[in-house]
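Same chain as my last thread, 157 residues:
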Amino acid sequence: MGEQRHPLLIISCKLMLLAENSPLGPGLFRRLAKLTRSGVHLLLTASEPDQWFPTRGHIDDVLGAQGRLQHQLQEVGGDLDGIYYVPRSVFTQDRKRVDALRDILARYTSQPGDAMLVSSSKAFLKAAERLEIPVRPIPRGEDGMQTLVDVLETYPD
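reply #2:
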């Protein structure tokens, strides 16, 4: 049996935003760039911006963060497919996560085994496991950056 590939790498946007200010960030961005050059699709996930803000300021911040991450990956020769914003819901958030992951798989015409979710959100990891998407849990905080680097160094194994 051949090596299992994960051509769709789904990472929490929060983790990548932490990487921006981490000493491990430059190496992490270079590793992601190498993966995307080898054909891996990189998609970040984030909660949909709060729609009840009286100004666009918060939404502009969200789009600015997306632009910064895209720029950092491009500077080292990689590419970001985009950020998938998961709709918020007080009562149906678990279903929203599962639906978002199903939609992502459909958009990439991927099977669950062809993807991998990397996140520190236990709820999002659980949703991925329900769909049989391989997961890599990442601890919160600076310890998470080293774990993220380790996961990416061994990806797709």
